[in-house]
Amino acid sequence: MDRQKAFLNDHRRHRRFIRFFQILIAIAFFGLWEVTTRVHVLDAFIFSSPSRILTTFSEMARDGTIFYHIGITLFETLLSFIIVLILGTAISVLLWWNRKAAVISEPYLIVLNSLPKTALAPILIVWLGNNMKTIIVCAVSLAIFSTIINLYTSFTEMDADKLLLIRTLGGGKKEILSKVILPGSIPTLISNMKVNIGLCLVGVIIGEFLAANAGIGYLIIYGSQVFKLSWVIMSIVLLCIIAMGLYALIGAIEKLYRKQL
After folding, report:
1. Of 10, 94, 161, 248, which one's alpha carbon is 20 to 30 angstroms from that of 212?
2. In the predicted model, is pLDDT for residue 130 greater than 60?
3. Which of 129, 142, 143, 146 is nearest to 206 (CA)?
4. pLDDT tens, position by position, 170-179
5. DSSP labels for 201-237?
């Protein structure tokens, strides 16, 4: 018991140590950034500064403009993420169910996964128009193919002994899928979710660069065009915060899953 307490205390100290230096690095970075702009080592007009970013954010927060743009980007990201999660899982199950279809579609999935999705964005605008549908499709296309490949690979590499046990007890494909394949692939699914939430955010921003009149990506493009670089830098900082928050959300889901094991 004493050893367990000592181990837990050491683990907590280690986490506090790591967290302290993570916060310290962030404070040092923003502090150095502010100082260098004030003493004119960096041009505040080009590089902005933490104080300018806070001023810009507070001005846009008063009329709710910034929250509107953040809300649009978050909605598009979460909707894309949910579509990727549902569609990717469903297609992976269908490919596992029909191995011939999996073998036939494998080279196409690999090619589509390797294709730079930014090349598709102009075509999507022509096909779908300059609207939210284009942004959603752009984000989904960025994550869907890798999800299908990873999940299908996980399905096919499931423990052969467990599959044999189900068959020995008279179970068929439905039982194998529901009792072994899907439950056993949850860690892979969560791992994919961690990657996909970031990919969906990237896809949404790419889409907003090209086909939006609202959102964080739109603010970046508009700010650069009218030389409001504080808008651009503020939007980038907000994207970092959003990315961290979304990743933390998936991490919380993972912790909840592990507690139930």
Report:
1. 248
2. yes
3. 142
4. 777 888 888 8
5. HHHHHHHHHHS-SSSHHHHHHHHHHTT-HHHHHHHHH
Contacts of 146 (CB under 8 A, 6+ apart): 113, 192, 195, 199
Contacts by residues 114-123 (CB-CB < 8 Å, ≥ 24 positions apart):
117/141, 117/142, 117/203, 117/206, 118/206, 121/206, 121/207, 121/210, 121/211, 122/210
Other Cβ atoms within 10 Å of 43 Cβ, number: 11
CB 147 within 8 A of CB 185: no
171: helix, strand or coil: coil
State both tokens at 104: 């036939």
For residues 152-169, give the mean pLDDT.
Answer: 82
* Cα distance between residue 65 and residue 71, in whole Å: 10
Q: Is residue 114 very low, low, confident or very high in pLDDT (cuts 50, 70, 90)?
A: confident
pLDDT in tens, 20-77: 888 999 999 999 999 999 888 888 888 888 999 999 999 999 988 999 999 999 999 9
Give the chain's radius of gyration (CA, Å).
Answer: 23
pLDDT for the residue 181: 86
User: What ranges in the chain are assigned the alpha helix state H?
Assistant: 2-38, 44-47, 50-62, 65-97, 99-114, 121-128, 132-156, 160-168, 173-176, 182-184, 186-210, 216-225, 229-259
What pLDDT is recorded for position 43? 83
- Higher pLDDT among residues 11 and 196, named by residue: 196
Quote the mean pLDDT of the chain: 87
- Name every residue whose Cβ is closer than 8 Å to that of residue 216 and which is 6 or more positions away in sequence: 69, 70, 73, 205, 208, 235, 238, 239, 242
Largest CA distance in the chain: 77
Structure tokens at 115: 């294709």
